[in-house]
Amino acid sequence: MKKETITMDAKLMFLQMRLISQLHNCNHLETKMIQCFQRRKKKF
Question: What predicted TM-score, i.e. pTM, was given to this entire model?
């Protein structure tokens, strides 16, 4: 019983980590895009 709960927790942790990393990557890309647009506006 204990082993099963541990593996379930590990799977949940893994999924959470993946979600967090994906969200972080999305936010990072968004900030990069915003910076690019701001730089372009300054040039014009």
Answer: 0.48
Model confidence pLDDT, tens digit, residues 31-40: 877 787 787 7
- What is the rounded distance in angstroms from the CA atom of residue 40 to the CA atom of residue 5? 52
Buried b (16+ CB within 10 A) or exposed e, 21-43: eeeeeeeeeeeeeeeeeeeeeee
Task: Output the six-digit token pair for 44.
Answer: 């014009």
Which residue bears the tokens 């690019």?
A: 36
Alpha carbon 32 to its chain centroid, in Å, reads 14
Q: How far is CA 10 from CA 5, 15, 42, in A?
A: 9, 9, 48
